[in-house]
Amino acid sequence: MSDKSKIKTSPEPSVSIIIAFQKPGDYLQECLAAIGELDYQNYEVILLPEEPMESAGEGIAIIPTGPVGPPLKRDIGAKEAKGEIIAFIDDDAYPREDWLKNAVRDFSDPAVAAVGGPATTAPSDNFWQKAGGDVLAGWMVGGVHLYRMLPMERREVDDYPTCNLLVRKSTFEDVGGFDSPYWPGEDTVLCWKLTHQAKKKIIYDPEVQVFHHRRPLFRKHWKQIGNYGLHRGYFVKKFPKTSRRFNYFLPSLWTIFLILGWLPLLFITGGVKFYIIIVLLYLLAAITTGVRSLNFKTT
Predict the structure, then answer these.
(1) How does pLDDT run across 92-119, given as a tens digit for each residue?
(2) How many angstroms from the chain centroid is the CA of residue 258?
(3) Number of H-type helices and E-type strands within the chain
(4) Calpha distance 288→270 (Å, rounded)
(5) What is the reported pLDDT for 52?
(6) Which of 5, 87, 135, 292 is in the most buried spot, having the most CB atoms within 10 Å?
(7) Mean pLDDT of 19-39
(8) Which H or E run includes 156?
(9) Quick one: average pLDDT of 210-216?
(10) Domain hosting residue 95, numbered range
(11) Count of domains in the chain?
């Protein structure tokens, strides 16, 4: 490990910010710069690259992990963490300046094991990245999980992505950390342990906000969504309490309808007209969603 931790004796709870990645990417410095502007002082930063890298600044620890997956990387970082709270954020995301201050207050409830917040599309993303973000933030894809991409009302949840997830370290250790071969999907496993094994709560707080750079349409975006779908499909059997939910199947069912739905309607009077109207309404909703997202002002 290189450099010294910034963790200190303070009335503020100590936080260890953990960032796992293969090698330093284009957005890492932006992430670290935003962390340096946080209005919270009692934290440390742990970087988890595959190979050794140059010092990233004061108070930033660097732990080369070798070629292992994100779940093991984060478990390695958590073992070295000195904070009472572990804050996971992706290297292609960056926090709002009050990110930690707002998250820490939610941990005043001892029943809370984790806190997540919205990961809104980064304002500096290009057109195709913002288009990818619009898809994720639209009700036709985001569905009941729009709050993961846009600030919405505070609530209790039972599954949340690690691009913006803070976990009480003691509970994290009690459930054995991620200890998971799955990726993506390691966050689903951890959240299941927190809520079903430890019997603790996960809170969604709209004020615990980060900005996340999106995959651009189309190829990279589809690849990411496809990976998510594969892991969710497996977890339907593995973790049915959090994954066997109708809303997770809606995008697939809708796609099947768009491709094949017209066939049975050929045999129903007015069926084709009905199909065309549904598709036109879908396109209208897509355009409306895009306009709404373009006009959305991040806080």
Answers:
(1) 999 999 999 999 999 999 999 999 999 9
(2) 29
(3) 12, 11
(4) 27
(5) 94
(6) 87
(7) 96
(8) strand 155-157
(9) 94
(10) 15-218
(11) 1
Task: Provide the whole-model pTM.
Answer: 0.78
Residues 24 and 216: their CA atoms lie apart, in Å, by 20
End-to-end CA distance of the chain: 36
Token pair of 158 as six digits? 């039972």
- Tokens representing 37 are 């502007």
Are residues 68 and 189 in contact, defined by beta-carbon separation less than 8 angstroms?
no
Please choose, from the candidates 180, 183, 178, 151, the residue with its C-alpha nearest in 3D space to the C-alpha of residue 167: 178
Max Cα–Cα distance, the chain, nearest Å:
75
**Residue 277: inside a domain, yes or no?**
no
What residues contact 233, with CB distance under 8 A and at least 6 apart?
none
Secondary structure (3-state) at 62: strand
Amino acid letter, residue 4: K
Q: Give pLDDT tens digits for 214-241.
A: 988 777 756 766 666 666 666 677 777 7
CA distance 35 to 47: 13
The answer to whether residue 133 is domain-embedded is: yes
Can you give the pLDDT at residue 256? 74
CA separation, residue 95 to residues 17, 71, 92, 200, 296 (Å): 11, 21, 11, 25, 18
Residue 42 token pair:
């009692």
Within a domain: residue 127?
A: yes
Assigned domain for 285 exists: no
Find out whether 65 and 50 touch, Cβ atoms under 8 Å. Answer: yes
